[in-house]
Structure formats: structure tokens, C-alpha cells
């Protein structure tokens, strides 16, 4: 578990467990054109090359409430961001940046040399976040989201 402080708030990042899936489904539905299902989360949590982490807010009574997550796959020296989400109430506070920093630091320790992701180019906040981490567009996936919206394939050197 990793603890991060943003402003005067304390958050933890911990490994996502199978029993977390029900609590994340409502969170996942706030962010994406095609939210992940319970089965998709379970598939990633149990996949040998996937890594899923929860971002939790530490409350005064020491309970930890999930307010975000990140899922990615790493094979050899490449890593692909599969899903990242921050609860709408906590957006624009640097938490997405915190999860991206976590991904890059984790990848650095694993020897990752290339990072990939897909993003809806209409999602300006996500696009700006990824560009701030030196991701650049290398292609387009037509009809990627809901079978009708394109995605930009982006890459970053490790």
C-alpha cells in the first residue's frame, strides 16, 4: 500500500481485490462511454499480466473509501493503461495525475520502456493529462467506443 498526500488530504493506493468489484462498479459507470462490467474487472484482477489498484480516501475514522482506480497490463518492457477513473466529486484535484505518477513509477521499477493507451479525443481532461505525461498520438482506432466513437492510440517512452 502506498500513501499519497495531495493538499491536506491523505489517500492510499492499494491492490484491488476480487471482493472490491461490487464497490467499484458504480464508480466505473461515472467515467466511461463503455463502463467495465463485473466480469471485466474480475478478468483483469485475475489476469497474470494485469495490475489493478484502488485509490482510497482516508477518512477521520480510519476507514478507506474507494474514489478511483487504475488498471494496466505489463508484458516484458511494455505497459498498456486499460482503465483509469476518479469519482466526479474528486476530479480536478490532481488525483488522476497521482495515479498516472503511480503507473509510471511502477513501470520504471519493472523496466518498462513503452507505455500505451487509448483515449476518446473528445475527453479533453484525459487527453490533456496524458499529453502532460508526454503521451503522443500514434494512431486511431475507428469505432472503438460503443462501436461508433474513435479512440486515439497514444504512446510514451519509458
How would you describe this structure in keywords?
single chain; 158 residues; alpha+beta; Aminopeptidase; eight-stranded mixed sheet; 4 helices; 42% strand
Structural overview:
The chain has 158 residues and is an alpha+beta fold. The protein has helices at residues 21-28, 38-46, 95-110, 124-132; strands spanning 2-6, 9-15, 50-58, 64-75, 78-86, 114-119, 136-145, 149-157. An 8-stranded mixed beta sheet has the order 1-2-3-4-5-6-8-7, sandwiched between helices. Strand 4 and strand 5 form a beta hairpin. The longest helix has 16 residues, at 95-110. The radius of gyration is 15 Å and the shape is globular. The mean pLDDT is 92.
CATH architecture grouping: 3-Layer(aba) Sandwich
C-alpha-based Rg, rounded: 15 Å
Sheet having the most strands: 8 strands, mixed
What is the N-to-C succession of helices and strands? EEHHEEEHEHEE
Number of domains: 1
Q: Let me know the average pLDDT.
A: 92
- Structural class determined from secondary elements: alpha+beta
Q: How are strands sequenced across the largest beta sheet? A: 1-2-3-4-5-6-8-7
Q: Could you outline the blueprint of secondary structure elements for this entry?
A:
Blueprint: E1 2-6, E2 9-15, H1 21-28, H2 38-46, E3 50-58, E4 64-75, E5 78-86, H3 95-110, E6 114-119, H4 124-132, E7 136-145, E8 149-157
Parallel strand pairs: 5-6
Antiparallel strand pairs: 1-2, 2-3, 3-4, 4-5, 6-8, 7-8
Amino acid at each position: 500500500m502506498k500513501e499519497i498526500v495531495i493538499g491536506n488530504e491523505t489517500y492510499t493506493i492499494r491492490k484491488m481485490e476480487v471482493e472490491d468489484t461490487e464497490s467499484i462498479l458504480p464508480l466505473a459507470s461515472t467515467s466511461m462511454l463503455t463502463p467495465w462490467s463485473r466480469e471485466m474487472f474480475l478478468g483483469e484482477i485475475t489476469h497474470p499480466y494485469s495490475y489493478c489498484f484502488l485509490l482510497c480516501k482516508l477518512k477521520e475514522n480510519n476507514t478507506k473509501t474507494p474514489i478511483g482506480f487504475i488498471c494496466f497490463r505489463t508484458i516484458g518492457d511494455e505497459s498498456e493503461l486499460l482503465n483509469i477513473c476518479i469519482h466526479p466529486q474528486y476530479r480536478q484535484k490532481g488525483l488522476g495525475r497521482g495515479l498516472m505518477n503511480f503507473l509510471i513509477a511502477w513501470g520504471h521499477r519493472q523496466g518498462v520502456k513503452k507505455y500505451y493507451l487509448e483515449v476518446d479525443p473528445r475527453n479533453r481532461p484525459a487527453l490533456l493529462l496524458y499529453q502532460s505525461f508526454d503521451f503522443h498520438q500514434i494512431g486511431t482506432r475507428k469505432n472503438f467506443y460503443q462501436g461508433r466513437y474513435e479512440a486515439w492510440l497514444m504512446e510514451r517512452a519509458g
